[in-house]
Design goal:
The chain is mainly beta and 90 residues long. It has strands spanning 2-5, 12-16, 19-25, 30-32, 38-46, 52-61, 65-72, 81-88. It is 0% helix and 60% strand.
């Protein structure tokens, strides 16, 4: 999984199944991690808190696919959301 913070929003933590995958992800940053294949409930919270910035979405991790999750939108406009892209790696 690749997570990219492209939102007009403060630094965030990205969680999957209520566990933090990425801490303190700042705007313009990206992080990568290998996960076991399956479906994960993913959400975004303000860094170091449990305040949800982007509500949960189910993200499926598949064999030979890089799942790219974008956190995008604007916190001030209240339209933060996910965009999920699947890129075949073979």
């Amino acid at each position: 999984i690749t997570v990219r913070h492209v939102a007009g929003a403060p630094t965030v933590d990205v969680r999957a199944s209520s566990k933090v995958l990425f801490r303190s992800l700042a705007n313009g940053s990206e992080r990568k991690l290998s996960l076991t294949f399956g479906t994960y409930p993913v959400d975004v919270v303000l860094a170091g808190t449990s305040t949800v910035a982007i509500p949960g979405a189910n993200v499926m991790i598949k064999d030979d696919v890089n799942t790219v999750v974008y956190a995008w939108g604007s916190a001030t406009k209240g339209n933060l959301q996910f965009l999920i892209q699947e890129v075949t790696t073979k």
